[in-house]
Amino acid sequence: MTRAWLLPMLFVLGGSAVAAPQLLDGSPGTAAALLLAFLALAGVNSPLVFPRSIGAREAQRRSAVDGRPIVFWRPGCTYCIRLRVRLGRGARQAYWVNIWRDPAGATAVRAVNDGNETVPTVVVAGRPRTNPDPGWVREQLSRSA
After folding, report:
1. Which of 71, 77, 96, 125 gives 20 to 30 Å between its CA and that of 46?
2. What span, in angstroms and rounded, lies between the C-alpha atoms of 13 and 48?
């Protein structure tokens, strides 16, 4: 859990360290803009931007019933953020598994990526794809709906 929040916490602390001297120099507008930029980076890299994660076994069980894609991800992953943003509201239709919270999810990702925890890994109908095109994932979501 702490590992998932490490990068967002570093952005908040870094933003505070960068904004404080600006504030002390009499530039509250610049300080506020810098702090807001760092807070935005912290928010985007936090687990809060992603749909609620479930365990890999539960996701596999549910996906077997309704055919929805399973997205294995981790906080701070640029490609996971890109996928999440490009899917928009449709992202909530997939099952999201945070591999840092779920050891079974991390094991599943390593099994299909030559021992590496490469994310996002999307599984549709038992077939994995590593870092797939968001358009392809959107197409898979529309098929399962």
Report:
1. 125
2. 18
User: What is residue 96's three-state secondary structure?
Assistant: strand
Residue 97 CB partners (closer than 8 Å, separation 6+): 53, 54, 55, 56, 59, 70, 71, 72, 73, 105, 108
Q: Cα dist. 95→9, 45, 67, 121 in Å? A: 26, 19, 10, 12
* Beta-bridge mates of residue 53: 96
Q: How does pLDDT run across 15-68, given as a tens digit for each residue?
A: 999 999 999 999 999 999 999 999 988 887 777 777 888 999 999 999 999 999
- E strand or H helix that includes residue 83: helix 78-87
pTM: 0.75
Q: In this structure, what token pair is assigned to residue 82? A: 């890109």
Amino acid residing at 19: A
Q: Which two tokens stand for residue 22?
A: 């600006």
Q: How far apart are CA 118 and CA 79, in angstroms?
A: 10
